[in-house]
Amino acid sequence: MNIATRATYHHGNLGPALIAAARDLLALDGPGAVSLREAARRVGVSATATYRHFHDKDHLLAAVAAEGYREFAERLRAANADPEGFPALGAAYIEFALEHPGLFRLMFGPLLRERERYPELGAAADGAFAALLEGARGFVGGRNEDIESVAYAAWSFAHGLARLVLDDVIPRERALKVCKAFLFGRAD
Fold first, then answer.
1. Structure pTM?
2. Does domain 1-54 match CATH 1.10.10?
3. Nearest to 89 by CA among 145, 137, 141, 143
4. Domain spans of the chain?
């Protein structure tokens, strides 16, 4: 093998580079725009090199979604530390969706139902839900309430608001106000 051929094939950090390329494609045109071939082209390797890291496009997308969930969990944990309390968690949820609409849709898409096939994705999604549970625990405090049910209610409400904003049904500002007023009992 000559050096020029080897240099175009070898990539020292191929897995993360393919994930970054897939995220760029996802941000431009959604999950349908992502392909192993296009990610490889953007990274500068052959399409067959992608198979060293990902079995197929869905495995690449699952890795992208897992990365998104880890970032999402960090955002939710930071919101839990906000002095505003639980309303900050709902706002962080909506803001993440608006900043990363393609990633957000991918994260909550059909791949999430296949946790056995994509254990990294399942673990990352569980980490984000743990951040919601942490917020619910703080919100409930010492009251005798089902913390998991509170977390599911907050998740459902914030997710619904985020989708309504992403789909241009309601404006961002209105969603944030609704989030504070109805889910968290405060009308500012």
1. 0.86
2. yes
3. 137
4. 1-54, 62-188
SS3 55: coil
Phi and psi of 34, rounded to 5°? -85, 130
Helix segments in the chain, DSSP class H: 3-9, 14-29, 36-43, 57-80, 86-99, 101-107, 119-140, 147-166, 172-178
Q: How far apart are CA 33 and CA 39, in angstroms?
A: 10
The phi and psi torsions of 2 (rounded to 5 degrees) equal -80, 165
Return the sign of the alpha-carbon dihedral for residues 35, 37, 41, 43.
positive
Could you read off the pLDDT of 132-177 as tens digits, one per residue?
A: 999 988 888 778 778 999 999 989 999 999 999 999 999 999 998 8
